[in-house]
Amino acid sequence: MKKHYFYPLLLCTAICISACSKDDAGSTPSGSATDKPVSLIGQEAKAYQQRMEVPKVADNTMFIVHSTTKYGVTYTEEWDKVNRTQRWAAYSITDANAVSIWNRNNWKGSIWKGAYWDGDPFQEDSIIPYMYRTHASDHYNNGLDRGHIVNSNDRLMSQNANGQTFYLSNMQPQNNGFNSGIWLNMENWVHNLGFNKSKRNALYIAKGGTTISTASVPSPFLNSSEISALNHGRSVTIRVPRYFWMAILLKDKNNQYHAIAFWAEHRDNQDTNIKNYTISIDELEARTGIDFFPNLPDDVETEVEAKKVLTEWSW
After folding, report:
1. Exposure string (b/e) for 120-149, b if CB count within 10 Å is 16 or more?
2. Which pTM was predicted?
3. CATH superfamily of the domain spanning 37-310
4. Residue 67, C-beta contacts closer than 8 angstroms, at least 6 positions apart
5. Which residue ranges make up each domain of the chain?
6. What is the pLDDT of residues 157-179, one digit of tens each?
7. What are 179-203's pLDDT values in tens digits?
8. β-bridge partners, 201
């Protein structure tokens, strides 16, 4: 459902680009035979906002593209520099990237980006200016997990792609009982659907945690808490979402579209019945103030976003 929301002015820097209005659909630059990290800026990056999975980007926020030359886009994300938090991250699963070349266990004893890794390569996202990014020290001893938004298990096509999912910009603070419970169960459902080539032509995913309510979107669902951390001798805060969500768009083998959303309160929760947390995309838009899948044809968008038909999905 196309809606208009307005947000405070945020400046763009590094490989971040100013948000733009919807243009004619553009193509995404293709990969080459060599897998290397790549980033784009300005006009070259506009095509990425036309990707099917990308929500409507708010005016003047930081729009970030993480990609590799061989496999294309790993994920895109929108960054709120005022609150130093991710607004959403989005990616797609297709035949081209639903391959398993690298896995999380490979990191022990590996070399990447000139560093030796004895485990998961959590690191700051250097494309975000230092004062606006989250730092490793923000997450120290706060009692919360560094919860992936883009699931590392959905990006196994190369070391570079998997490593990009460990940037701190792709992390939200999560209770362990949530991260290892209902959130993991939702992630596994998405992964199994996306990697089952008989079920889909493509799967488009946007995920995030609720951030701060604004005057234009006065929703009680957007409240978040803060926790304090010590960063280089100064006290800082990081946002802890009250809810987490997923928006899923399936293009099936007959090229028909189906959409569904997940919404879960951020608390310890080991529930395995993820159907209990489904809502329509329209309802998710109302709760978050985000316009999902704006690059669908208008008539298709209106139809699929209004429905929550559980029988259309494999559970």
Report:
1. bbebbbebbeeebbbbeebbeeeebbbbbb
2. 0.85
3. Extracellular Endonuclease, subunit A (3.40.570.10)
4. 37, 38, 39, 40, 73, 74
5. 37-310
6. 999 999 999 999 999 999 999 99
7. 999 999 999 999 999 999 999 999 9
8. none
